Records
---
Amino acid sequence: MKATAPLPVIKGMLDVLVLRALSWAPAHGVEIITWLEERTGGGLEIEDSAVYQALYRMEGRGLIAADWGVTENNRRARYYRVTARGRTQLAQETRRWVRYAQMVTALLTGAPDASSRAGVK
Amino acid sequence: MPLIRPGIRKLLHLALRRSDRSVRDVDEEIASHLALRAQQFEARGMTPQAARAEALRRFGPPSSARRHLMHAATYRERRMSVLEKLTTIRHDVAYAIRQLRRSPGFTVAAVALLAIGIGANATMFGVVDRLFLQPPPGIADAGRVKTINLHHRSSVFGEYIASSFSYPFFTELRSGATAFDHLTAWFGPRPLALGRGTQAQQVQGTAVSADYFTTFGVRPARGRFFATNEVAEPVGKRVAVISYGYWQSAFGGAADVVGKPLDLGGSPFTIIGVAAKDFSGATLNATDVWVPVTAAQGLFPFIRPGTLASRGSLWIRIVGHLRPGASPALAAAQVTTLRRADARQPGGGGDTTGVAVLGSLVPGQAPTLRPQPANQVAKLVFAVSILVLLIACANLANLLLARALRRQREIAVRLALGVSRARLIRLLLAESMTLAALGGAAALAVAWFGERLVSAVLYVNRTPLDSGVDGRLVAFTAAIAVVTGLVTGLIPAVRMSRADLTGALKQGPREGAQRSHARTALLLTQGALTALLLVGTGLFVRSLQQINNLNLGFDLDHVMYVDVNVDGMGYTAPERAAVFNRLLADAQAMPGVASAALTVGSPFNNSYAVSFSIPGRKKLPELPDGGPYIYSVSPSFFRTMGTRIVQGRDFTEADLGDHRVAIVNETMARVYWPGTSPLGQCLVVDTAKDCTEVVGVAASSRRQRVVADTTLQFFVPITHAPSYYADERMLIVRSVADASAAADAIRRQLQRAEPNLPYVSVQSMAQIVAPQLRSWRLGARMFGLFGVLALLLGTLGAYSVLSYSVAQRTHEMGVRMALGARVADVVRLIVRQALAVSALSIVVGLALALAGGRFVRDLLFKVSPHDPAVFVGVGVVLLLTALLASVIPAMRASRTDPMAALRTE
């Protein structure tokens, strides 16, 4: 695998990313996908239909709500927005992810600590 | 960004079925996505065909992408429809709460009605559950633990079920009944003396065989249970296990309780363990202290030297745990066979008709040939509590209906605005369900107190360790509350949703001529049930009067029995006699004691038969109860008991000498010497060769039973007591004040005067007779309570419903008065209508009571279930109540200003 090839999304992360995409303003599916592509420079490997699956899943859980609307070019599209519950969820998941990432990063990149190894001996 | 509000979306889609809509939505969204995406790629410079292909490729594999999306959409719809329903319910309940807060008086009344109705039920369910549905707490695998009973069909004693056995029979079962893997025997719980002198107290003790705790699957909370060698025959070790409750109350739950000494019945015991928290014995009467049955001699008056080895002493109860795989039938067959062998042994009684019956540990399911009064009362009162609930329901439904009628215009407006009838019913139901939920919660509080109260009345000796409010009770209460909410809410809801729209909008909130049949029916039901309950109450009150007027032939209120068990002290016969002589002297010297006497044999305690003859008479007449029974008494006996001497004279100190004299009771005088005076007649008693001269006749008193018990009795001075009974002395004390109140003070004084004696039991006569009167008293109390509740509910209900309906008929009254009706006419009209409904309901209720009389016959004391005084009384009381409940609203209606009433149009 080449280093530049798009990375698959970690299980469960797509929902959080989509919530983040919706956190500024309501958007339809293509707008969400475009935002994800632009912000990652195409670095994540996401099928378009997977985004819709995430949207439906979260709509069922009451994290987002949807309504049919009309785009700037007069096309019908389903617009999604984050509910109050969704905002709480996003904040919570973000905190969790940051903690998790910091820990994993520290473990993988930190130098072996002499004092703690001494305890093992 | 243009958005359509969610509410509108719902409106637009309401006509479609959810699943169809969902499929169409998804397909539409896919199409919209592909178009937008292609547009995006085109804008980046692709050809229309290439852009379209790229959009499709990015979307995902054509075979599965759509399917996965459909799947996700279905999940979404299912979740959302649940959420939507919950939201609707929340809105309905919020609406109901707003409505209820607007009329706090109505809400409080309705919740109180339900709290009483449901609370009464929950309370009785708690009792019934404990009694009929569940084994005593703390027993593992209770379904396979069986009590052993024998069903006899004896030619001598008739048909009966025996649950008491000899200890030798138990040891034979233990080795021979292989279908059980654990078998145990016990005796008790019985009062057990603990400590000495002023420290002495009484606890509930049970003597048990080895394997007792194993059979019930109980674990120790502290220490250990009896080891085999501690319970070994013939004499076990003086060790004791205490209950968790006793550990807490007497030792404050001290951790070092194991190893502490206990002075039981004058002998030293050592505590070796504490039983698990929830276990307090295999019966509803809780045990405080368990001791090995082989070490219990002297602790309980019954267990004497030789009792353990005697095949003729039937005193222990036996239970066994069935071996895995063994059937109850096999176990019963083994017990039957062993009992046949036992019966043929010397002292075994010879009755081989016994057939083993394995019983359940559930108290109310014990095998019996006759219904047990306490169980019958519990069942009856449960039925009665359901009646109370029905009355409360009828009341509440009526109130809700009246309330709905008042809101007719509001409801019509809602219907006109397009609110569906189903939704309207839901709104009205939400109100009754909210009320029911509040009522149910209040009912749990009622049950919390009620259960303690009722079980204290039903089971005198049960220590209420747990509150009685458990998961089962909460579930039951919730179920009852839901049913109540549905039933009471549906009637008005369905009625109102059928309301005539235009009529209601035009007329406004009043009932007019179309008076509700539903409401009359509810009033009738409630009235009839109230009448039925009140008849029950009346009958039981009459029964209680009969009990209180009971003449037993002695004074029930001022007499008490004083006894002390000195078996454990190793006294000789003269030493024992000395103890009682000292107690007599102590008692006589006490303030508050009117007189005291010693006796061998006493009513409701023990009586002795003796060989007896009258010179010159070959055959003496016999009474079914046997006898004559001899009582050996000190001279002040009759004065102390309050028994009258009706002929001749009382005993004097001089009678304690050699000249033998006797006093016979009236029954004996009548049966042995009909038509002549017994005075001066000669009796030959026991082994004496001389005549015993009859010097007096005493009023007959009951021997053992409060009903129908006439017995041949005679009395001799205590110095002439038959030698083999002479040890069984007891002290009788007559107090100046009421005996029940004085008993405790007298016990403390005696205990102080005799610091070396174990617990001195002082029981008032009333206390001794009470168990026999308990079921009757019980019925009277419970029925009295529920009858008053019913009357209260009935009156309040009738009053509130009438005042509601009168308020709604203000217009009609105004018209009547405008047309020339006088105040008296209006009052008469309303009162007449109320009385008509009431009279009809009373007739129905009394008819029901006549038909149902046989269910309470056994529980009534010398009162016929068809007692005319009660029936007439109930009729009069209820009519007066109806009059009272209708006059006040009627007076209010008559004060209607005709002009004001007409102007409100």
Note: The longest helix of chain A spans residues 84-109.
---
Amino acid sequence: MRPIFLLISFFLFVQTLFAQESFTVSGTIRSESTGESIIGATITSKKTDETVLSNEYGFYSLRLPKGNQTLTISYSGMKTFILQLEVTKNIQKDISLAIESKTLDEIVISAPLVGRTITGTQMGVERLSATDMKFIPQLFGEKDPLKAIQLLPGVKSASEGSSGIYVRGGAADQNLILLDEAVVYNASHLLGFFSTFNSDAVKDITVYKGGMPARYGGRLSSVIDIRMNDGNNQRLSVSGGLGLISSKLNIEGPIQKNKSSFLVSGRSTYVDLFLKLSKDSTVNRNKLGFYDLNAKMNFQLGQKDQLFLSGYFGSDHLNAGKDFGLSWGNSTATLRWNHIYNNRIFSNTSLIYSNYDYNIDINLGANNLNIFSQIRDWNLKQELQWNAGNNHSLNIGFNTIYHTIHPGDVTSSASSNFNDILFQQRYAWENAVFISDTWKASTRFSFTYGFRMSAFSILGPGDFYIIDNAGNITDTIRKKQGEIYKTYFNAEPRLATRFLLNSSTSIKASYARNTQNLHLISNSTTSRPTDRWVASTNNIKPEIADEFSIGFYKNFASRYEFTAETYYKKMKNQIDYRDGADINNPDAVESQLLYGDGRAYGIEFLLKKKAGKLNGWISYTLSKTEKKIIGINENQWYNARQDRTHEIAIVTAYQLPKNWTISANWIFHTGEAVSFPEGKYIINGQVYYYYTKRNGYRFPDYHRLDLGATKAFKARGRYTSELAFSLYNAYGRENAYTINFRDNKDDPSKTEAVQTALFKFIPSISYNFKF
Amino acid sequence: MMSLLKFYDNLVRIFIAIIVLSTFASCEKVIDINLNKANSKYVIEGNISNFEGDCKVKVTQTINFSDPSVFIGVTNAIVSISEDQKDPVKLIQTSPGVYVSDIIANSSHVYTLLVNVDGQEFTSTSKVPVRASFDSLYIIDFSSFGSNRKFANVVFKDPEGVGNAYKFVQYKNKIENPNLFLLNDLYSDGRSINTFLAFFDNSDNQRLNTGDTVMVEMQGIDPSVYKFFFSLSQASRGSGDNVAPGNPVSNISGGAIGYFNAYVKETKTVIVP
């Protein structure tokens, strides 16, 4: 802590030197109609040409020289607010923005990706608000935030219709997915076809693809920071939607006007109604579905304090008659306290709970089996944002998390033939301190530099294994309750710089190190709820990634934005499976794993039209992701599963007369890397397949067109409504979901490849309302 | 109890697949994939037990994936097996690629297989474990997927000390069930083990019905043989859904695929009630 202390003292000293020349203007930016705080609104001073963004709680703080000042406050979809001020002392000024009224010739349908600013040092960042996603046609008509993100450059969908995400060559488990700061360990419903995020309850999504700020840590490839709405503190408001396979309802309103509010948002599916239509009894007895609930309350306690309590609870179920039941779900809770120490220091303290578990019931006559697995966190996070003056703003804090992992107990009824199998629970304590400073060195140059120090302690009780190169356990180390077996320390520097070429063009560069101590073990190429999280052990070392990136940013013709970013990422202690791995044994899963290096590099282009009747974006990514692990692929570099050379997304929306909006997306990507057999052989009369290279082949190229149309009905009083149609995979491309090999039915001496495709021409209709 | 865990995992996998594929209008089609031709490798299956007539070594080769599944025996191999440090016994070729002898294997002895083909040498050693007592065999009922199925259930006593491994071979009316039934004692060392021989089968061929004669052969095997068969069952059967399909971990050195299994066996028979 000493260097931090010195740094703070230094800035306090510097600040006093310049203090007499300028004052601070600070406050909170809110929406006039709902009282919701606005994240990422830009506050620009006309005289100093300095821009700051409102933070996650709408708070902003800006240093201004003495005298008359003009501030411009803007946010997409809101009327720009001009504030005239005479600055003679520190000023506390809360601002409410009104929703932009439409003019006939200039309708802003949506302004996606508002977060990319030319002036900030942050790169590799994408922002989406709920309205940005509104017209993107999606599978089953669901406005899924995680799937909207997949249309951005450098972000890829894990598989057909899946909410799983690969960012810049990272694996699906290398994304830190946060909902009101709580980690969501499995962000998917219905086996990945829906995400756990209900767009009605979501205020803002920020995706960091690289160069993460020091306050985030714990995952290698990205941070997906999702913030829930706080709840309307002006009036009671109800909104909802009726869809083909799911419906939702959202109620929010003031508890005490202007002071406190609540929000409850629920969603449920009835997809299994379709199963009932089937005449096949093995199908129509099945059930599947999910529901989820978001709830939030916030209380303004005087001028300086605000309390937030938010929670998420979701559950999925999958049943095959009475024989089999699988249920899984996340629950999270976050208690937050904002405190404004003075007009320059903003503090947030969060106490966070996260839980993911799954439960399997197998009912086989006399044998009733139950399998239970869980990961649970208690997390305390403290963060200070300090506008230190003299062009410095600091971010300082710490984070401490206690993890409990229950890998999967198998228990059975007393009359069963099976023995219970109880695996060891695992405990870990994860700590981090962080500090970073953004320094506006000159009008052209700006720097953010900082670091994060992380410590991951593996706690007893438990047995830890010494494993030889062949994967055999050679020794066992036993630790008692409360004993620390091992602590991994990692210093993670985070650096970023921006060079402004002119007022609409900038170049940025960044370097960031990230480490990861929780790893997802999956024995399937398709994501499953039974994939398991494991913590680092003596064998599984923390994964480390160093990412370098350079970007070019240009705004032109007032409504176009062009971005090019290139990155190179070096990864250590990457995990892959031994040939023929068996990962069903969670106690010593390490004996089935191998560790090595990874590298990912690529270039991403994005051209976007932000306003006008026709708007949208085109993104293109060229990339490569490889691994090199001793014991796999003859120790040579091989393509990671998520390696896809080309990736194109075109997203458009067009405003027609009479309140119709039509939209379309087209997606193309190279098929993912996969291992196919090149030969076959016979053992005991059975034919088996002979493999040569790991991931040496590819799935066929993937492409798809989705269409959407939305009709907004005339408002009757406060009641507004719309009807949305969509068609997923409009030209019926059969994209490979899996490829299997089997003997030909008519001629068993022939072996053939069989491709399974899932979604073709999936239409949907939904009705959304609000009053 | 590895196989039981695997069985649970398979259950989950199959249920999920059924539900996904039946719910979301899926379509299946045979596609052409242009697969490279792999260099051919020798495949060796070596067996010797405490019963005369089990000593048999088969030598074949891998073929290209697109070729018809016809595997021709390698006829020019020189095959021998030796017990401990004794002189090797040469096996005689009785049909193309099949080499046999009337020697038997005894518990706690180490056997070495030597195969020489065109100057390429493949060797393997396998130790016969101590025989565990095969206590009983009976049939259990098991309902799943809305139908009732019968499975063979075995009870046996695992000797003290981790590292024992077992392979069961099930015959229905003298026809061998090709499924691999494997067990080890990682979680049940020294205990009486009571488990059923679980398998999935889409066809009715292997289902047990009242009146069938079921014979189960229990083999005590070397852990390296267990590893071979386990990895074979796990990864080599080409499911596109498997994260790391690969080749089995052979216990033969020299670059051949296959195993050498020196085992101790005991059989029991039951009529399905």
Note: Chain A is about 5% helix and 60% strand.
